[in-house]
Amino acid sequence: MSDKPVCVRDFEHHAKRVLPKAVFDYYFSGADEQESLSDNVAAFSRWRLFPRVLRDVSRVDMSTTVLGQKLSMPICVAATAMQRMAHPDGETATARACLSAGTGMMLSSWATSTIEEVAEAAPGGLRWMQLYIYKDRALTHSLVRRAEEVGYKGIFVTVDTPYLGKRRDDVRNRFKLPSHLRMANFKSPDLAFSSKEGYGEDSGLAVYVAQAIDPSLKWEDIAWLKQITSLPVVVKGVLRAEEAKEALKYGVDGILVSNHGARQLDGVPATIDALPEIVEAVDGQVEVYLDGGIQKGTDVLKALALGAKAVFVGRPILWGLACEGEKGVSDVLQLLREELHLALALSGCRSLKEVDRTLVRRSGHVSRI
Questions:
Q1: Residue 218 has what DSSP assignment?
Q2: Which candidate in 14, 141, 180, 260 is catalytic?
Q3: In 3-state terms, what secondary structure has residue 272?
């Protein structure tokens, strides 16, 4: 890149210039009218920060833990599929960048690098496995077992995708993987999303999900997942307080407040707006995380103040990967780290323990002060 990016949006603009249109559209797009896609970002502006002053912020400690594992900062990498479309090194580059940054990476079931390749690329790195529940439960079990065998530290099970949301750009582009790539964790062409027969007039991924992913998924399947693994299980895709409480009944170890990057059901709330009621519902019994719409350090701070233990970042990582591979991912993580450090200091917080609900208020309440 000729000019040094100074914000996440700079990385996005460069990625749009260098990626094939169908690839950028796949990474960027949301469902239907993309109302929730834009609101995921805009919603952070509805929350205002109320900083403390005169707190001696000459030193700021951003370290934390997720599921008992230590992190240098509360910014983790979300599962994003098929990263070798962005850069030849794909998920292995992302894993190396996360190791260097001292943070964790969630690997997509639909990665273009295998579970084992990603583990080998960054020995000692912190990794979690994102899991779709396939119609073939033996296949699903094998993904969990493989992750366990090479040291992944948790399973994030996606619960909001019985079918794929309608992403209009993918339909227009008749999206499919480039011919030299495949979903690397699967052997058969159909499961590896590399069928030579094509997928007709629809998004190829929508056809794939309809054929392979189990739409009958229900809460009892979370109990089944807990039975087949000793790893912590986090449900990814909860937006309602009563479902957070239901998740607790089934023994989950965490909840990721997520609307799938606004790629499933359009018109759902922004995740930052859904977060407070989920945090209230679980009442400290499990950790709560957030993804969706995070563009800058103040977004992270607002999520932490509203009760998230950590946040997961997806698209910004893809933009960095598209720009300069491992270095690009490292640059994005470093940018967000520096922005969060500054936001904490300017808010009078010397550590994450000092971040609490009093730091943020909905903008509509400001005039009453």
A1: -
A2: 260
A3: helix
| Rounded CA separation 300/359 (Å) | 12
CB neighbours of residue 25 within 10 Å: 18
Closest Cα partner for 332 from 106, 8, 108? 8
DSSP strand E in 88-149: where?
104-107, 126-131
User: 256: which strand partners?
Assistant: 236, 289
Q: Which two tokens stand for residue 88?
A: 């030849």
pLDDT tens series, the chain, 369 aa: 668 999 999 999 999 999 999 999 999 999 999 999 999 999 999 999 999 999 999 999 999 999 999 999 999 999 999 999 999 999 999 999 999 999 999 999 999 999 999 999 999 999 999 999 999 999 999 999 999 999 999 999 999 999 999 999 999 999 999 999 999 999 999 999 997 777 888 899 999 999 999 999 999 999 999 999 999 999 999 999 999 999 999 999 999 999 999 999 999 999 999 999 999 999 999 999 999 999 999 999 999 999 999 999 999 999 999 999 999 999 999 999 999 999 999 999 999 999 999 999 998 755 444
Whether 168 and 32 have beta carbons less than 8 Å apart is answered as: yes
Structural tokens at position 157: 């099970």
pTM score of the predicted model: 0.96
Residue type, position 167, single letter = R
Catalytic annotation on 260?
Answer: yes
**Residue located via tokens 């910004």:** 316
